[in-house]
Amino acid sequence: MSATSTVSGSPTALYGGQAGRRVTVRDIAAAKQRGERWPMVTAYDAMTARLFDQAGIPVMLVGDSAAMVVYGYDSTLPVTVDDLVTLTAAVVRGSSRAMVVADLPFASYQASPEQALASAARFMKEAGAHAVKLEGGRRVLPQIETLVSAGVPVMGHLGLTPQSVNVFGGYRVQGRGQSGDELMADAKALEHVGAFAVVLECVPADLAARVTAALSVPTIGIGAGPACDAQVLVWQDLMGLTPHPAKFVKKYADLAGEMDHAVRAFADDVVSGAFPGPEHSYR
């Protein structure tokens, strides 16, 4: 399997490719055709966005998970368009190659297609987002149709949709039994109206595999097994900052431990007078 493709006349590897232009929905579609898997991570500020961009991450999501990991709420529901527009603009400024996808937060699109377009327009015009993501299946098809027809790339989100956590009665696996048929129908409907990718969150691995095989657009898994075309994690989860991560999280670093050690060392040096030393002082 080739690691590169030619899109718009330019050789491009989706993951780890050279800087020079942004990843586009055409690149995402081509990766699906090649059978190429790729990573997506969340980002909420310019500094981490720059690091992830330099690492070759092709897609960054400014998720409504910022409600919890940035603003300290206990769910995604309180975060607003104003909150996320500011964060999205920072991620766009901090990156040069990755596609930046912005979450449409709770109550910013459910009321009508017109509301969805007004919210998406703010992310595109004020923050420079390249696409938006919204949650739900057939109930949000009118919103997706309106956005796509207006030129806004849309990423769908099925399974455990955190904005509906109160309806689900908690963060639970979705799509078991007959509800799997409903999820499959929703996924096909999202593709039909123009979604360029579909996130599958907390669904059985066998169902995610069937949905991935049935769609011509890529699936992005989070707690959905290994068969999805891409995988996404909240960056604080994969870096070991989250105290009690979900089962689907693999911790790739222990930044919590490193940061604890560093700040304690700094504090000890200040108390003892070891910092600042002559090398940290001006003459």
Verbal overview:
The protein is of the alpha/beta class and 283 residues long. It is 39% helix and 15% strand. The chain has helices at residues 25-34, 46-54, 66-69, 81-94, 113-127, 141-149, 165-168, 179-192, 205-214, 235-238, 255-272; strands spanning 5-7, 10-12, 38-42, 59-62, 99-103, 131-133, 154-159, 197-201, 219-222, 230-233. The strands form 2 sheets. It has an 8-stranded parallel beta barrel, surrounded by 6 helices. Strand 3, helix 2 (46-54) and strand 4 (59-62) form a beta-alpha-beta unit. Helix 4 packs parallel to helix 5.
List the helices and strands and how they pair.
Layout: E1 5-7, E2 10-12, H1 25-34, E3 38-42, H2 46-54, E4 59-62, H3 66-69, H4 81-94, E5 99-103, H5 113-127, E6 131-133, H6 141-149, E7 154-159, H7 165-168, H8 179-192, E8 197-201, H9 205-214, E9 219-222, E10 230-233, H10 235-238, H11 255-272
Helix pairs in contact: 2-4, 4-5, 5-6, 8-9
Tell me the β content.
Answer: 5-15%
> How would a crystallographer describe the biggest sheet?
8 strands, parallel, barrel
What integer is the average pLDDT?
A: 93
Assembly state (oligomeric): single chain
Order of helices and strands: EEHEHEHHEHEHEHHEHEEHH
What's the overall geometry?
A: globular
The first-to-last residue Cα distance is 60 Å
Index terms:
disordered N terminus; globular; 283 residues; eight-stranded parallel barrel; alpha/beta; two-stranded antiparallel ribbon; 11 helices
The gist of it:
The protein is 39% helix and 15% strand. By secondary structure, it is of the alpha/beta class.
